[in-house]
Automatic annotation (TrEMBL):
This is DNA/RNA-binding protein Alba-like domain-containing protein. Residues 18-79 form the DNA/RNA-binding protein Alba-like domain. It comes from the Eukaryota. It comes from Hibiscus sabdariffa. InterPro entries: Alba-like_dom_sf, DNA/RNA-bd_Alba-like, UCP030333_Alba. Coiled coil: none annotated.
Length: 126
């Protein structure tokens, strides 16, 4: 029983193009951070979603984006989802979190600065 990493492809909830379903086993943390940055650039907001053990990963992604001044927290919702455990054949409840982040006022300025930063660093090292 794993949590799939689905980024707006197929399924009922995937009608939102700015939704990221996070897994704590499929992809590294900064894959999701960079994906969330791209979604914020394209859609001005991103919805991070996770089940069970991946909740801590979603919270970490949101905190990284907020602490770097790239995003503001719009909405946080928690719930439980019933899923069937394939191994035991019974229904289990899983915790679910959804965090909606919006584009901060400084987003474009910070993204442009971070894109220019590697160039200035390499010039200083030479």
């Amino acid at each position: 029983m794993g949590v799939e990493a689905v980024t707006a492809t197929g399924g009922v909830e995937a009608q939102k193009k700015n939704r990221i379903q996070v897994s704590n086993t499929k992809k590294p943390l900064f894959f999701y951070v960079n994906l969330a940055k791209r979604y914020i650039q394209q859609h001005n907001e991103v919805e991070l979603s996770a089940l069970g053990m991946a909740i801590t990963t979603v919270v970490t992604i949101a905190e990284i984006l907020k602490n770097n001044g790239l995003a503001i927290e719009k909405k946080v919702s928690t719930s439980t989802v019933s899923m069937k455990d394939e191994n035991k054949g019974r229904v289990v409840l899983k915790a679910k979190i959804e965090i909606m982040l919006g584009k901060s006022d400084k987003f474009d300025l910070l993204m442009n600065a971070s894109n220019a930063a590697p160039e200035t660093d390499t010039k200083n090292k030479e």
